[in-house]
Amino acid sequence: MLKTTNAGDLRAAHAGQTVTLAGWVHRRRDHGNLIFIDLRDRAGVAQVVFNPELAPDAHNDAQRLRSEWVVQIVGEVSLRPEGSRNDNLPTGEIEVFAKELKVLAESKTPPFYINEDAQVDELLRMQYRYLDLRRPVMRDYLLLRHRIVKFMRDYLDERDFAEIETPILIKSTPEGARDYVVPSRVYPGKFYALPQSPQQLKQLLMVSGFERYFQIARCFRDEDLRADRQPEFTQLDLEMSFVDREDILALMEDLHVSLVKTLAPHLTVRTPIPRISHAESMAKYGTDRPDIRFEMHLADLTNVLSGTGFRVFQSVIASKGVIKAIAAPGMGDGTRRQADDLVTLARNFGAQGLVTIALKSTASSVETLTGDDVQSSAGKGLALEEIQSIARTVGANPGDLILIAAGPANTVHTVLGQLRAHLGHKLELVDPNELALVFIIDFPLFQWNEDENRWDAVHHPFTAPKDEHIGLLETDPGAVHANAYDIAANGMELAGGSIRIHRRDLQERVFKVLGYSAEQAQDRFGQLLEAFEYGAPPHGGFAGGIERITMMLSKGAQSIRDVMAFPKTQAGVDPLFGAPDVVEDKHLKELHIKIVEE
């Protein structure tokens, strides 16, 4: 080894020892007679002193040092003089007096500062990712990810789970998103697919009798990207036999709470984790991954305004739409521009418009409101009595701003749910040091696809319906609840799963509702259907994104890209390698593929 210890591991107990260090020059400070550098390695930084009286050759060589040069230093650890200690550094009690210096590699001037926590364009960071990962904050993100994965492995191993790898090259089967496909050279015109998840594979492992399986699995989905999505990602994939929903929820709760308490002690977590039905979550929060750290619940005004003379609301009620609202505390006395900005934001979320009602703090209560105390974008379309009734229903007080959305339920929930999340942060209603876990249960099994005029699976087609709803599969698919569950935190889904179908007859009935003929089901899912005929145990499980939980447990990560070593951009591009890219014609010829220019 070129070093005897890590620079970041040095402490007062090492005083008097001669050590050999190796790492990068983090900072260099020339104080004339003395030269100081901060030497950085994976463990942290330590101050090194070059004194010409103690080591003239090393001091002379140190004058050449620049940031990011790689060096080896032999020196003696010493306690810093009283008054010069740095309490902000774990190594702040000591410094190393250099005896020997060897330059192992020089460095060009980096395209951005590594020794400063400055804002850097993300595209530039990703282009020079190997430099970006030298920054202590990025190092800490990846080391946290390592500790999370290790914790999961140890936790599950102690509970008799076996880690089993499943194939990366499989057959393309519809499970929600588009598959990435891989052409076969040996079988021209045929393709493998990269797995969106090991869903069928882990169910086959349950049929195989392993009973408790997990895997830190790579998954691939060809879908539109956003801050919390990447074309390839990693998830904890887990399956258990001879269990019901309560068994799995208990495991999910203990795993996540233990993970937070062990690796993120800066976060508080509520226990027991509350449970909310999907219907309640959509009705109160406008989303199935709610942030429950603050109230601001959605209030249904449809019945309250059933007799309104306001034509916009009349039209929505007549078309079987809904009218809902939230109250933003303390924004009633704001400027008109602030309300208009929220209307613009609502349009960006999909709304055609937004009615705002500002209740001025000049009134002592909702009951004493007068026309002078109200400023509404509906003008005189809403009577004062209606505004008072709206305020009481939504729980607004003088000084609050009421935001009303009207239209199809899905649109209204999306708009107000996202406005609620935006205002929760803007108005500082959330505790940044709380991880508010919540279970969402009783999802619908199917959702109607208007564009394709068919039923789609809300999760995936292998999710079991609740026993009491099996009889509704053919007569009322929209009323069937899934034996499924998600765990969310602070507005983000962390993991989800379900009890699976384990009987061929029931699986075929679900496939039929989804529009698969018997031949199509056999062609695409025959391996699973046939396995169910050989004694399949009841089973279920869940999967959770490693990147998402790492982002949530970190101090400051804003995107899952921050906690991935080599991510893609939001456009799915790798600036470091320049992927995706063309391949040579000879490779295309071997694969019997021809690029057709449109």
CA gyration radius, whole angstroms: 30 Å
Number of strands: 24
Q: Can you list the strand order of the major beta sheet?
A: 6-9-10-24-23-22-19-12
Classification by helices and strands: alpha+beta
Distance between the termini: 57 Å
What amount of the residues lies in strands?
Answer: 15-25%
Report the CATH topology name of the largest domain.
BirA Bifunctional Protein, domain 2
- What is the count of structural domains? 4
Major sheet, described briefly? 8 strands, mixed
Q: Give the CATH H-level superfamily of the largest domain.
A: Bira Bifunctional Protein, Domain 2
**What integer is the average pLDDT?**
95
Shape assignment: globular
What can you tell me about this protein's structure?
The protein has an eight-stranded mixed sheet with strand order 6-9-10-24-23-22-19-12, sandwiched between helices. Strands 1-2-3-5-4 form a five-stranded mixed barrel. A five-stranded antiparallel sheet has the order 13-14-17-15-16. The chain has four domains: 99 residues, OB fold (Dihydrolipoamide Acetyltransferase, E2P), CATH 2.40.50; 168 residues, BirA Bifunctional Protein, domain 2, CATH 3.30.930; 136 residues, GAD-like domain (Gyrase A, domain 2); 72 residues, no CATH class. The longest helix is centred in the first third of the chain and has 23 residues. The mean pLDDT is 95. It is built from 15 helices and 24 strands. Helix 4 packs across helix 14, helix 9 packs across helix 11 and helix 12 runs antiparallel to helix 13. The chain is globular. A hairpin with a 4-residue loop joins strand 1 and strand 2. With 598 residues, it is an alpha+beta fold.
